From TrEMBL:
InterPro entries: aa-tRNA-synth_II/BPL/LPL (IPR045864), Ala-tRNA-lgiase_IIc (IPR002318), Ala-tRNA-ligase_IIc_anticod-bd (IPR018162), Ala-tRNA-synth_IIc_core (IPR018165), Ala-tRNA-synth_IIc_N (IPR018164), Ala-tRNA_ligase (IPR050058), Thr/Ala-tRNA-synth_IIc_edit (IPR018163), Transl_B-barrel_sf (IPR009000). The keyword RNA-binding applies. The keyword Zinc applies. Its EC number is 6.1.1.7. The gene is LOC112682333. The lineage of its organism: Eukaryota, Metazoa, Ecdysozoa, Arthropoda, Hexapoda. This is alanine--tRNA ligase. It is an enzyme of class 6 (ligase). GO terms for biological process: alanyl-tRNA aminoacylation. Residues 22-753 form the Alanyl-transfer RNA synthetases family profile domain. It catalyses: tRNA(Ala) + L-alanine + ATP = L-alanyl-tRNA(Ala) + AMP + diphosphate. GO terms for molecular function: alanine-tRNA ligase activity; aminoacyl-tRNA deacylase activity; ATP binding; metal ion binding; tRNA binding. Belongs to the class-II aminoacyl-tRNA synthetase family. Keywords: Aminoacyl-tRNA synthetase, ATP-binding, Ligase, Metal-binding, Nucleotide-binding, Protein biosynthesis, RNA-binding, tRNA-binding, Zinc.
Amino acid sequence: MIKFNIKPLKYIDNSKRYKSFLSSHEIRKRFIDYFVKENNHKYIKSSPVVPYNDPTIAFVNSGMCQFKNVLLGQRTLEANCIANSQKCIRVGGKHNDLNIVGSDGYHHTFFEMLGNWSFGHYGKAEACGLAWNLLTLPPFNLPKKHLYCTVFKGDKSLGIESDDETRHIWKQIGVSDNNIIMCGASDNFWEMGEIGPCGPCTEIHIDYPPSDGKNLIELWNIVFIQYSRENKTSIHKLPNYFIDTGMGLERLTMVLQNKTSTYDTDLFSPIFNRIFNVYGKSKYTGLFDESSLDTYYRIMADHGRMITVALSDNMLPSHNHKLRRIMRKSFLLTETHFKIQPGYTLLYDIADEIVNSLGDTYPELVENNKKVKYLIKHEYTIFNKLRMSVSKDWKIIIEKYPVLRKFNPYEECTGFVPACSYLIKHKYLNHIPAFTMYDAFGLDKKTIGKLAETIGLSVNWNEFEMQLRNLQTKSIKCIQKVSNNYSMQNIPKTDDSYKYKITRHSNQTYVSPVVTAKLLAIIDMNGNIVTEPDITKHGVIVSLVLDKTCFYSKAGGQQHDIGTVKTNNGKIFNVNDVEKIQENGIVLHFINSIDWPILLNEKELTIEINSNHRLGLMRAHSSVHILHAVINSHLVVTTQLSSCVKNNFLSFSFALFGQTFSPEDALLVEEKVNNLIQSGASVKRTTMTSNDLNQIKVTLLPGEVYPDDQVHVIDIYNDIDDLYISREACCGTHIQNTLDVIDFCIVQYKCLAHECTLIALTGPLCKDARINGEKVLNKSNNLEGILNSITLNNITPTKVNILLDHMNQLKLELKNISKNYIPLNIQIQIKKKILATERNIQRLVKEKKKKILEDAVKKLCEDSYAIGYVDCDMAYFLDDDYFDFEHVKNICGEVPCLFLTYNNKKIHVYFHIPKEAPVDEKWLDDFWYKFNIKSIKFKNKSAYKFIEFKVKQENKYKAREIINDVIQYAKNYFNIMK
């Protein structure tokens, strides 16, 4: 494609306007209607900007992404002519530079790509004609004399001649020779990657504003995928070729609305107005000066569109560092240049405006607006905490490495500042420890390279790649080591489609078919193919490879089936584990038996799964889907983090994003799940391609990659209400009606700061759990009975200890619920009873202590002083090392008080000095001396009304001796004073 230096256009002569004003909405609609209604194309809606079938890209960045597998020849579509408007995000790479956004009039992180495709239906002439007619006929009416076409002029190194066919087509259409430009491979030869489909392209440019071809702006790129590149030097022609076109809506709108930049169109002007309404100081004027506020207007408008679209398409900042980085940049820009606090509020308003402008075209923006705004605020909260936590460390870092000022630590990943601190601590390093930066601190390769360049250190990328491979190798399961052996032996993949073939009976039971399968190989635990019956060499545990199987191997969080394999003469082996090697699709059936050598003579085996065990798995897995749907409706935003499905047992973890999810919330969710189960909704499995997923509303897990050829979708559908309870991509096994789950019971709730985990039971296990729960609940009722029998007058250490034993036993049963499950609602009741019992017993003990202490103190009160040993041993049967003299300070009135007592290897001391007492408190001299304490000078008696000490003294008899000496000295002092 031709690369021109496109700058904001300073002047457009209004006398040369091409047409009456068309809104961006009308332009988009006209494009779609032209191809779909007038030229027999099928409309396929935009895919989300989250790529769910292509792990090689972070964002969907072009219209062809959802058709990539078709272009690669991996599958076909029912329709051979397609048109759509695709949401695209480009943040870096060869197509765009994030740092340029805002400084010119046409770069964007988010844009819409208008495109049409032909998959073997029409060729170059039709593609060129369709494009030309749309642009030049009403209502677009672009003047033909201002349109230029570029054509591939051939490339000797590729062995491809000039595309004279396309040049001739343009001439036939009516384009003059002066308006046809021949270009080389760098401009007009399109390639998907280093290998794969490729071909020449032709582009339509417009001279805008008219200047004899000096201001060419690319409008439309039409690619002819005629070839396939096998390697750097080898290209061969395809038997059939495809048409792949793309035209940026923003740039087309700029031309048709006669604007000087894409930012002046109605795609952005409402956003600028919204920003001004919040900012309130100066409007957007369209000035292109990097230091002007207009630049920041453009950045905020662009980034706000990108952020809103990405979040509404279920992309999470925690899963995509580029998205998080742009959000943080927007927060900072809001606070520093627009002086708006807090930094997320401006994005809130922009998100609302994006919904107004694009919501009709992309309804998911409307549906997810509340979620988008919540995520913006939540991400700001995380960002703000990061700022506060690293600001001090960052100041230290830039003092030692001033060159690092070019980085904004708040836009980087959370490990960036600790990584820089690590480099300062290890300042004598010869090169950047790239793998440590990546593995320990979470820096990506680009940031590592930029950091190394900034501080002047090299990076050994070969060493980095080697360490990364070593890490990946360690994480591979030992069973996968056998995959190389399989490929060498050319063992075919196992046909495991039979795992889905199961029949439901009216009594809510399921039967799996008995399958006769060929035995292809026996493998020992070391990955060796067994050829001899030597148990001492191969061990008693081996795995069987069959040509087909009805066993489900562990996948998607669901545990494997168990069952049997039977020989022709009736010998039965139990299958207790099943694994599938993803690299080659071979399923391993593990058996543990000293009799396995007899299988070497078998060619066929009869295999059968345990239907009851499978039914338990299906109940649990369908319940996970229902639970997921209910939690999604209960919280503003969440996402599944993990799940585990076992026989009538499930564990489900989900993200909270700062929301609270209490045990009471869990009970509400449980009630809704059970209501949906009892609704008798049908559960159906359908298979489709990853492209088809885009055409339906389906729950996909963020970060999950779905295969191009076949994706299983589980629909839980309520026929009465005509409502999808759940629609989720899943490879697991499921019941066929929600009634077959029978019951659902949450038995464990665990919430951390950022996530929550629920453990639940299904089917008959729920009944067992409820019975067990009632038993434990009755024990807690007994606890209340014991407590009610204890009063202030009859409380004794024995009774308290009995009560404590009962409470500890209940706590132990709640702690060991993995052995004896207890429903969560009963757990909550029991915990409340335990808490109430603890509080009541604490209250009783406290009151009893107070009463005993008061009685003991009263005995020591004289007319002029209160001094002596307080004997409270019987009150402190809880051995809590606490004497509450505060409650008895007024018993003796305003007289000098000194009380001493001993408990738990400590001497407890309380003394009270009346305000009217003399300054010289010599009656305490022996106290200070005996306990080796520096005497307190009571300059302000009101501040030292009473004092408590704890003096460690392990010897009880020695303690009593000291106490008696101090008491006797104090009493003698007052007796002498009389």
